[in-house]
Structure formats: structure tokens, C-alpha cells
Amino acid sequence: MKIGIIDVGGGFRGIYACGVLDYCLDRNIRFDLGIGVSAGSANLASFIAGQRGRNFIFYTEYGLRKQYASVRNFIMKRSFIDMDYVYGTLSNHDGENPFDYDALQKNPTEFIVVATNAETGEAKYFDKRDIRQDDYDTFKASSSIPFVCKPYFVQGTPYYDGALGDPVPVEKAFASGCDRVVVLLTKPENVIRTPERDEKFAALIRKRYPNAAEKLRQRANRYNESVALAQKYARQGKALIVAPDDTCGVSTLSRKPADMKRLYEKGYADGEKIKSFMY
Fold first, then answer.
1. Contact at 8 Å (CB) between 86 and 68?
2. What pLDDT is attached to residue 278?
3. Facing residues of 242 across strands?
């Protein structure tokens, strides 16, 4: 039986999934396929590499630094989050907290990173073959929130956050051969996403990237439809949705350490739900 796990990201709310994944590492729970969207791609990369606790430090310590996320970054580099600092300066082999590239490649778990082609608006599914030592551009592309960040170029093509193209890639998991799938959400399962903020940001990128803007405008509906599909699979016993009952005050770009720690602990506790689903 092939079992997959999806981490949908959600900016700093991703620390919830980080807690779930640390629980899985502590209990030696492994998966055959991981699909990461936005911050979820970095979460799963460290999980597959076996680097327990690494993501927690990125959220609660590095995330507070101005080099990581700040208005100054937005003014100077047109990106509130400096992707090159996060996935380069900090993560390279000689960085402050190196990503274990060799462990990722040696682990038999398949890995897919979802980004969105800014020109076409279509989802792009990167895999391990697109990741090289000290070249983590796929994570940067997957995490580039429209307008908040400029699109990140990979081999000459601009990409935005994977949530535009495929916010909850349940269908992709089953199309990739999974028999059962764990879906990590970072909002309560029954929260209906609304489009107001997405529509504002869509208007700001429409002139340069009209197709990506349209996908951003539709994201809330596609997210809600995808969660509903995951719920359908859950009723059939083919999926398990793990989601917080509340977000502890953490939002996409909020950075309050105490709130993030509480959300992490909530994720770690909720990780226990996976044991019975797996076995």
C-alpha cells in the first residue's frame, strides 16, 4: 500500500504541520510520497531528510530576523520574505542550519514540490530531480506569495506560490499512485476560505501576470473544493485530514513566538491521529 502525505503550507501557520511531522519522526512514521505546497515544501524536505526540529527553529527564531521577513526586504528586494536568505544563506551546506541534501536524496520517499507558473497560471510539479545541493530554487518558487513576494525564477521561468495552481493536491497524490493520503491543513478543517484578500493581491499583479492573477482570484473556491474532496475521501477511509481546531492567533505572516509555539504543540499532539490511520 502506498501512503502519501500532503502539507498545504500557510506561511507561519505552517508551524502546525511542523509539529505533526516532528511527531511522525519521533514515532518513526514514514510515508511513500510527500507533496509540499508553499511553506509545506520546506517542512516536508526537512522531514524526509530526517532533520527533526529544524523547521521549528526557522519559524520561531530565524523568522523573527529582519533579513528573513521585513518591510525593508519589500522595499529593497520587492519581496517581504527574502527567499535567498531562507533557502540559501541559512540552508546551504556552509549556512547556519544546513539542509541535509544527501539524506533527502537517499530516502526512498518520493517528493513533489508544487509551484505555479506565473505566466500561464498552471501548476508545476517539481520533484527530487529538480533539487540539487545548495540549489533550492523549487522551495523558493513554491513559497513566493503573489505581491508579498516577487515571482521566483527557475531556469528562466517565473513562479508563484504553489497554492495558486493546486492549493490542496489530493488528486495529484492519488494520480501518483497513492492508496491512502494524509492531508495536513493549517486552518481548521471546516473554515471556508474567502476571496477578499486574494482579489486585492490579484488586482496588483494582473497587469504583468494576468493568468496567475486569475488563478489567485479563484484560489479560495479551489481550496474549498479541494478540502471538500479530501473530506469525501476521508469518509471512504482513503484520506485522513489533520487540522488545528484553532490557529492560536497565528496568521500567514504573523511572527509571535509564543503563539507559534502553542500552534506547534497543537500539531505535535494531533500527530497521534496518524498512527491509527497508518496501521
1. yes
2. 85
3. 184
Q: Which residues of 109-119 are buried (b: 16+ CB within 10 A; e: fewer)?
A: bbbbbbbbbbb
Task: Indicate the pTM of the whole model.
Answer: 0.96
Show Cβ contacts of residue 219 under 8 Å, excluding neighbours closer than 6 positions. 163, 164, 167, 193, 195, 198
Contact (CB, 8 A) for 167 and 7: no
Question: pLDDT tens for residues 67-107?
Answer: 999 999 999 989 999 999 999 999 999 999 999 999 999 99
Helical H runs in the chain?
A: 15-26, 39-48, 54-60, 71-77, 83-84, 101-106, 137-142, 162-165, 170-175, 196-205, 210-235, 257-270, 273-278
Position of cell 500557510?
10
Q: Which is it for strands 157-161 and 239-242: parallel, antiparallel or unpaired?
A: unpaired
**Residue 79 CA: distances (Å) to CA of 75, 84, 135, 224, 277:** 8, 10, 19, 27, 40
Q: Compute the distance between CA of residue 171 and CA of residue 160 in angstroms, rounded to an integer.
A: 20
* Mean pLDDT computed over 13-31: 97
What the block records as the C-alpha cell of 127 is 520533484
β-partners of residue 146 are 149
